[in-house]
Every structure is written in C-alpha cells, then in structure tokens.
Amino acid sequence: MKRLIFRLSSLGDVILAQSALVPAFEGETHWVVAREFEALLSGHPKIARVWTFDRSANGGLGAWLRLLSELRRQGYDEVLDLHSTLRTRIARATFAAFSRRTRWRTLSKQRGRRIGYELFKRFWPRALRPTTYSSRCARIAGGYGNERPDLRWLAAGNVRASSSGKRIALVPSSAWPGKEWPAERFSEWVSERSKKREGDTFLLLGTDRDETALELAALLERDRIGFENGIGRYGLGELARVLAGCDLAVGADTGLLHLSESVGTPVVAVYGPTRSDFGFGPLDERSRAVETSLWCSPCSKDG
User: Would you state the torsion angle of the CA atoms of residues 8, 89, 4, 77, taken in this order, to the nearest 10 degrees?
Assistant: First the structure.
C-alpha cells in the first residue's frame, strides 16, 4: 500500500493533522505540505517522503499542475485530503482523469456545525458543535479518534532542565490579531507570577513581525521584569526543541500551542472571540483553556 496525504498549511493544522500518522498503516506514506512547514514533517519516522509546494508568486496553477503530474506517477493506492481546498479539488480531478485505482478520502470541514455554533452561540447543542480536527484526521486514517499528534521526534535527546521554578514559554501572537490577548494583560500576569513564584523563568516567543510579541517585550523591559527574548531566533524545528524544554506554554489561540502539546509540554490557552470547543482546543489533559464571556463568542472561525 502507498498513501499520500495533502495538508499544506497552516501551522496549527499541519501539526494537528499528524494524528493521521498514529494509526497503524502497513505501507508507505508520503505528505504534501507548503514549503514553509517542511521542517515539521521531514525526518518523521512514519513518512517516507515529503513533497513541498512553494505558495509564493512562483507557485501558481502551473507549478501545482506540474507537481500533480509527478505525484500521479507515484502510483498511490490511497489519498487522504485533510485540507479540502481548491488546490486539492484540482488534484482529485486530475488523479481521476488519469487513474481509477486511487481511492480518495476527503475530510469534512463541518461547515454546518461551525456556522450553527457561530449563529446560535452557547445555545447551540454541544452534540452539534464541531468535533476536534485532530480526532477527525485520525479517524479518516483508520484510527479511533483518540489519537494525538506526536512530534516528540523533533525534540529527541532534549532534556528538560531541573530548577526550583518553572520555565514558561510566552506565546502572545497569532496569525489572526482578533485572537490575541492584549500585551498589557500578558505583562500584568507575568508581573504577578514573577512576584509569587520567584524561581520561574520566562521565554518570549514569536517572529520579527509579531506586533503583540514585540509590544510585550517592550513592556517587560520597561517594567524591568526578567525574561529571555526568543523573538525571531528559532526555526520551526528549533522551536519544537525549545518548547520541549519548557514546563508550560501560555498564549493565545495559535499554532505554537499545538506544537507545545505535541512535544509533551502542557499549555494554558487564552480564548476571547474563539472558543476551545470550536475544534482546535487543547488536547493534553494537563492543559487548560481560559475563556472570556464575550457576548459574540464564537464570533468567527478566525476570531
């Protein structure tokens, strides 16, 4: 058996989709992913080959069709479409036109469940709310739905340092600004925590473009609160090892919290316009979701 998985982006989804690799599969697995997330898959013990696609200006329809042409020649018995976008619909049509032997499975986006929850808020029955994305990916791959993404292979050999306090990663930024807890609130929490737990250390994570992370760094420096500035210092593979060395990650509804859980570090996720039961909440039993009573929540999928 030879299986191909499509999940190109985004950060959190590529991580959660790896629950599809947990169920036993007697065969060879390939994965198609956007080039910027290749580090999350290359070297995975259950992936024989990672195919990357450049979504930049040079990665248009022509480049996608050329990649599909090469994929068709691989002779896949099964394709798992965990993305369900226009690109993967084109891929399915292309495969069908040239080969009838490939079995194709597409993951439902559960739009009805999501829209119903957005419209009726907390009055929407729990049984009709979106199921977790991770469990759906596991089931479509033949699992039971309780499988969880495991990226501890990225942090192999990493040893968590022992100390009197906890090492806490701060992840204040999200790809969607509406999901972010204000930097001032993060600063207040860190200040209170550092007073109560003097042995705790803080590591601030984000990219050079994450405005909330940069603002939080400035606030912590202004208030002379000790922290390690990790903004812009790490690639995705390095971030996995760094998070594996922490005791806890605290942040907004963002992909790095999923990465933290996948390497064994629990999280505290702060939710405002989105909710933890929207399909992408924490999975680790040690993790916690902190939610506001914002009237419109869940306001939208992206906050």
Answer: 180
User: If you search the block for the tokens 């080969």, which residue do you land on?
Assistant: 99
Task: State the Cα–Cα distance between residues 97 and 252, nearest whole angstrom.
Answer: 44
Q: Summarize pLDDT for 164-189 with one digit per residue, the tens.
A: 799 999 999 999 999 999 999 999 99
Is residue 248 within a helix (H) or strand (E), and if so which, with residue range? strand 248-252
Token pair, residue 273, equals 């316009």
Q: Say how many residues make up the chain.
A: 303
Q: Is the dihedral of CA 19, 43, 95, 98 positive or negative?
A: negative
The answer to whether residues 155 and 241 touch, using CB atoms and an 8 Å cutoff, is yes
pTM of the entire predicted model: 0.95
Q: At what angle do helices 86-98 and 61-72 cross, to 10 degrees?
A: 40
Q: pLDDT digit string (tens) for 46-101?
A: 999 999 999 886 668 999 999 999 999 999 999 999 999 999 999 999 999 887 78
**Phi, psi for residue 228 in degrees, rounded to 5:** -100, 125
Give the angle 65-149-132 at the CA atoms, nearest 5°: 85
If you write DSSP's letter for every residue of 166-202 in order, what string do you get? Answer: -EEEEE---SSGGGPPPHHHHHHHHHHHHHH-TT-EE
Which candidate, 30, 114, 17, places its Cα nearest to that of 71?
Answer: 30
Residue with tokens 């210092």: 233
What percent of the chain is helix, strand and coil (3-state, nearest 5)? 40, 15, 45
